[in-house]
Amino acid sequence: MSEFFPAVLGVDGCRAGWLSVLWSGPGAEVKLHHQFTDVLAELAAIIAVDMPIGLPDQNGRKAEAEARKVLGRRSSSVFSTPSEAAVQAKDWETACLINLQHSNPPRKLSKQSFGLVPKIREIDVLISPLLQRKVHEVHPEVSFYHMNERQPLQFNKKTKEGENERQNLLKCAGFPIFDLSLQIYRRKLVARDDIVDACACAWTARRIQLKLAQSYPFKPEVNGRGLQMQIKA
To answer: Which residues contact 39 (CB under 8 A, 6 or more apart)?
Structure first.
């Protein structure tokens, strides 16, 4: 995949906002955005973002359930998407109470899941069925699963072994990997695994562009706003 092609964008949430990787052939560019509106302004044919798109009436979606099935030992990396009502809550305690009423069986939210709510909400107010032709939900671990010949990865991404495992897969898949030690962003703003995950998202964006991506589930669920709820890889 060394030839030039219409640019695609992989996006991962990070502490400072949104970390993107723009890929259009032999090279790729890392960029930090503070708002998702800035991501949408990038000149990319396809945007693939590691964040739930399309909120359910009830906690959880088929997309997460099917992704977990294939990930095996890495299945814990896939969080359940909170109910649409819980996403509007201002604090974790309130979100838990609301989600209990919008889940079967009743289920609270983990603090880790609630930590994603501001970014989920940020996308949700911008997204539309029309925009979903360009902006797609992905999950890096599912992308790496496909890079790894449909096998779950061995190591956690936060470990050095896990970082090397993912970097090697990206290289073998034809992606122009980065020397992570040379990145200009401070670690407390952008973690090394944020960059690696964004690269995986860009790889999937290219697969979407080529109509090679697999979808979880194959036939997407659709929420009350007409948004498709589907992870692509």
So the answer is: 9, 11, 18, 20, 33, 47, 49
